[in-house]
Design a protein that fits this description.
The structure is a single chain. The protein folds into 5 domains: 111 residues, 3-Layer(aba) Sandwich (Rossmann fold), CATH 3.40.50.11220; 71 residues, no CATH class; 125 residues, CobE/GbiG C-terminal domain (Nucleotidyltransferase, domain 5, 2-Layer Sandwich); 107 residues, Tetrapyrrole methylase, N-terminal domain (Cobalt-precorrin-4 Transmethylase, domain 1, 3-Layer(aba) Sandwich), CATH 3.40.1010.10; 123 residues, Tetrapyrrole methylase, C-terminal domain (Methyltransferase, Cobalt-precorrin-4 Transmethylase, Domain 2). It contains 18 helices and 29 strands. The strands form 6 sheets. Strands 2-1-3-4-5-6 form a 6-stranded mixed sheet, sandwiched between helices. It has a 5-stranded mixed sheet with strand order 7-11-10-8-9, covered by helices on one side. Helix 4 links the parallel strand 5 and strand 6. The longest helix is centred in the middle third of the chain and has 14 residues. The two termini are 46 Å apart.
Length: 568
């Protein structure tokens, strides 16, 4: 919850603006300011104070407990010019909150955390827990000193790292990606980054206490030299999905509880099957089988072990498996070009990626959104298959990869060649984008109000006779047609030919919309007709939309009736 505090009418207006923008996230605190700040500081994860920075410093100073527990605090000045991350920049999320407040109010974020100010990702902001000498290694990263990257258990999809952190570097400053507890935990110049690589399979008798489950898990991890900070999930048989002690154990660890059917678990080979769980829940193994089910292709690090309560019989079992490292490929549509048509999900994926693969001109559009240290693999026009192969190879190497394309990456773009290369050894995520056809249609009016089709006139990948057959079919079926890749200097006859095929079934006055560079600074558009269209105004960044026999020009806009008969 984000607490909002103000002392003046201008501040109150700011609170109201944020409350309207984030209705489910905020709570407005009224009353005397000192009391409001005190209550919000105790009750909320973050605060936005529409007060002078000095006043907020004095108000929160007696309330400070520690950077791991204090909320993030952002202050906003009286005229709403600056959103200042005052406290808990990383741990409290104040840096990110300052940016959100700035976006909502149209002001400037002020962030003074050293790593953020220098454009370097903070070790505590990579999304994974860290142990060791965070301050010393962060200083080395800030100073540009070489930092050795070690991944002894294989590479899980790594967050974006600064360019001076590499496996090739020979240095006494180290960043080790490991789920093991090691002497390096206390080394002066080493940080251990904890990947979410471990799954703990758990079983338990009816009524097993959460404390017994947690004690068993803790001892199993400690005896194996494994860090509890790398536990990504607990897993069990679905008959135990509502077992209160197991559910509470997962909640207290802050991880999900994964459940599997008895039949699924019974089909997994384990080293220590038993008749007892077979009789109780229908599978000879719960802990070991569930751990392996949640870590497909992984290895069992800790075989089944039983709890050892001080009194009474053992009620819990546990086993630990390590997940096989899997890379991640996100295929991201950037939209037609305007920044405000880039979806929030696309922004998140770009920030999450450690490797970006894309056409150079598309990379330029989003370069400022990438985390510092993101590796960029860009290439020029005509290298689509190479980019797709590169993206898949990088994901197979264990990286978090974003393959970018304009519009929607699945429409005449990079998704299909990439997914043709990808097997089931990597995770694949698709992020939709606003397509050129939709962006152009919004500019033209409502040309796609009824059934429509998109056809690319590029014969580089599709023989012209196939394209011509599709255009004829669209003409005969009276579909609205949007032409992608309509005309280039080397392909100047295809568009006139396609228009002539449509004209065989449509009147010369049928509306045609032409949009060049939709949503970009050099955007231009016109609504004309099949007979009057000047094809020389069309190029490869133009979309041409041809209406059907019902499409009309209404006040200079293309409108295709929906064709439904509305009932009162």
């Amino acid at each position: 919850m984000i607490g909002l505090i103000s002392a003046t009418s201008a501040g109150q207006r700011g609170c109201e603006h944020l409350a309207a923008a984030w209705p489910d996230e905020v709570r407005v605190y009224d009353g005397p300011v000192r009391e409001a700040v005190g209550r919000a500081f105790a009750e909320c994860e973050q605060l936005v104070c529409f007060l002078a920075t000095g006043a907020v410093v004095r108000l929160i100073a007696p309330l400070l407990r520690g950077k791991d527990t204090d909320p993030g605090v952002v202050t906003v000045d009286e005229t709403h010019q600056h959103a200042i991350a005052l406290l808990g920049g990383h741990g409290g999320g104040a840096n990110e909150l300052a940016q959100r407040v700035a976006d909502a109010l149209g002001c400037r974020p002020v962030i003074s955390t050293a790593t953020d100010a220098a454009g370097v990702p903070g070790l505590d902001m990579l999304g994974w827990p860290v142990d060791g000498a965070v301050a010393a290694v962060s200083r080395a990263i800030l100073d540009g000193d070489p930092v050795h990257l070690d991944t002894p258990h294989g590479v899980h999809p790594l967050p974006a790292l600064p360019p001076n952190v590499t496996a090739a570097t020979d240095s006494d400053v180290s960043l080790i990606v490991t789920d093991r507890v090691a002497a390096a935990d206390t080394a002066a110049r080493t940080v251990l980054l904890r990947p979410p690589s471990l799954v703990v399979g758990v079983g338990g008798s009816r009524g097993v206490p959460a404390d017994e489950v947690l004690t068993l898990i803790g001892s199993a991890l400690a005896d194996a030299g494994l860090s509890p900070r790398s536990v990504a999930a607990l897993a069990t048989v679905d008959a135990k999905a509502d077992e209160a002690g197991i559910v509470e154990a997962a909640e207290r660890l802050g991880v999900p509880l994964l459940t599997y059917t008895a039949d699924r678990l019974a089909g997994i080979d384990v080293p220590n099957p038993s008749d007892a769980p077979l009789a109780a829940v229908g599978t000879p193994s719960v802990a070991e089988a569930a751990a392996l089910a949640a870590a497909p292709g992984g290895e069992l690090l800790v075989p089944k072990r039983k709890s050892a309560p001080q009194e009474g019989p053992a009620m819990a079992t546990a086993a630990v498996a390590r997940r096989r490292p899997r890379g991640r490929l996100s295929v991201v549509g950037l939209g037609p070009g305007a920044r405000d048509l880039l979806t929030p999900r696309a922004r998140e994926e770009l920030r999450r990626a450690s490797v970006i693969v894309g056409l150079d001109q598309y990379v330029d559009q989003i370069r400022d959104l990438l985390r510092p240290g993101t590796r960029i693999l860009e290439s020029g026009l005509g290298a689509e298959e190479e980019r797709a192969r590169t993206a898949v190879e990088q994901a197979r190497a264990g990286h978090a990869v974003a393959l970018i394309g304009s519009g929607d990456a699945g429409v005449y773009a990079m998704a299909s060649p990439a997914l043709a290369e990808a097997a089931d050894d990597i995770d694949v995520v698709g992020v939709p984008g606003v397509t050129a056809a939709l962006a152009a249609a919004a500019i033209l009016g409502a040309p796609l109000g009824h059934d429509h089709v998109s056809i690319s006139l590029s014969d580089l990948h599709t023989p012209w006779d196939v394209i011509e057959r599709r255009v004829r079919a669209a003409a005969e079926s009276d579909l609205i047609v949007t032409f992608y890749n309509p005309r280039s200097r080397g392909r100047d006859w295809q568009l006139p030919k396609a228009l002539s095929l449509l004209a065989e079934h449509r009147e010369p006055g049928t509306p045609v919309g032409v949009v060049h560079a939709a949503s970009r600074p050099d955007e231009r558009s016109e609504v004309t007709t099949i007979a009057a269209l000047d094809v020389t105004t069309v190029d490869m960044v133009t979309v041409v939309t041809v209406g059907n026999t019902a499409t009309r020009n209404v006040a200079g806009r293309m409108v295709t009736p929906r064709g439904y008969r509305w009932q009162a």
